[in-house]
Amino acid sequence: MKNLKFLFLFLNSLLSFYAGLWAYEMVLWLVWEQTISEGDLRAVQYWAGIAYLIILVPSYLLIGSYVASKIKRRIVRLLLYPIGCALVFVFPTLFIFAAFGGGSLFSAEAFLFYVFFISSGVVFGLGYALSMFLSLGKF
């Protein structure tokens, strides 16, 4: 059963990463009416992927386990998993900007990464709630 939960969390991580990437591209298209070039897409995938693996996945799992251990009401857990995971959006953006020597955290580029990581957090949080529900019979 534990292997199945780890597989589910792995797939949830992939799904949440690609949900964030999709949100990034959709906001770029809807707000600025631009598409992303192949080179820019690879750069976004690379840097967001590094930030996702180093910062977000551990943060998401820590938030999920903290909420599961401290919060007893199921409906509150259901709300706190995605909200808690979405609220760490600024840390991977800071990581990416630091890797490039800085930048404005209020710029259009930062906004796109915020959308990426908030969307990713919501999807991961909901998936984590589902994994808790499936593995423990409660969330």
Topology of this protein?
Layout: H1 2-32, H2 38-70, H3 74-86, H4 90-99, H5 108-136
Helix pairs in contact: 1-5, 2-3, 2-4, 2-5, 3-5, 4-5
What fraction of residues sit in β-strands? under 5%
Spans of at least 5 consecutive residues whose pLDDT stays below 50 are: none
The topology string of helices and strands comes to HHHHH
Biggest sheet details: none
Mean pLDDT across all amino acids: 93
Q: Judging from the principal axes of the Cα atoms, what is the shape?
A: elongated
The end-to-end span amounts to 16 Å
How would you classify the helix and strand content by structural class? mainly alpha
Query: What's the tally of helices?
Result: 5
Calculate Rg over CA atoms: 16 Å
The number of distinct β-strands equals 0
Helicity level: over 70%
Q: What's a quick, concise take on this entry?
A:
The chain has 139 residues and is mainly alpha-helical.
Fold and architecture overview:
By secondary structure, this protein is mainly α. It is built from five helices and no strands. The chain has helices at 2-32, 38-70, 74-86, 90-99, 108-136. The chain starts with a helix and ends with a helix. 31% of the residues are buried. The model has no long low-confidence stretch (mean pLDDT 93).
